[in-house]
Amino acid sequence: MKKNKNFLGKYVDMCTDFGMKLYFGPDGGKPNLINFLNGLFEGEKVIKDLEYRPAEHNGTQEADRKVVFDLYCTSEDGSHLIIEMQQLSQEFFKDRTVYYTSRLINKLVPRGHKGNTYELPEVYFIGILNFVLDRSVSGQYYYDVALCDKVYGSVFYEKLGYKMLVLPNFNKKQADIKSYMDMWLYIFRHIEELDEMPKFLDNRVFGLIFDIGKVASLTELEMKLYESSLKNKRDAESVRLTAIKQGRQEGIEQGIAEGIEKGRLEERAKAETEKLKYALNLKKRGLPVEDIAEDLGLTVEQVEKLK
Q1: InterPro entries of this UniProt entry (predicted)?
Q2: Contact 28, 218 (CB under 8 A)
Q3: Could you tell me the residue range of the domain that residue 162 belongs to?
């Protein structure tokens, strides 16, 4: 395993906002997301198809806080899946996962007399964490959480689950990797360091990942968005390491996360500005408005207003 001399590496880092959308988003990433989820569920359920849903959710009341998921999908059997990449720990991260699922469940209750039975679909929160979730549990890299009976240990409610992958705790060598879930964990941790797909990976499952993830294939705009996303990740890691070095880890994780989130929003705003500038240049060159909108993910109205 060699590190590409280019500071960006040969393949896009999966543990970035840009990488998550590139590898798993609706623009060509659906097969990857289906394969990832099936590897994670390991036969508990088999997902054959997915439908992407809006990631932004307003509350039922005007004063309710807005919720934005990284990815939100429904499977063909009606299950709802929230997929989140989290760079930094938060003091109340577990509370946040429960809040996210609770907000979604509240929206899924049928309105009117249809809701009298309270029948609900399955809801799962999938967390890919770049931090240690529980320092008292050494080396645990997979959490499979459900509502259970504390006396007998049996599952009390089977339609709500939380599955967490803790990347810093995954340190298996290639020779020890057997399951598809471990394969996914391996490339989440190492893809940006690789120069080619390792032979122990199943090409039928991971071939598309390495096809669409080449940094050299990114457009000019995509490269700018990726560099911005990668900078956010590296800034988060730098802040975390500095906090540890200075012995101020306890009590500051929440403040760090809020600061990084603010920077992340600012970077997104800058990236959106760059996208609009780029669209204006294309418009001035005489390219059709509809083509510009489709290529850059904008609406026709946004492009028409550019002057």
Answers
A1: RpnA
A2: no
A3: 1-216
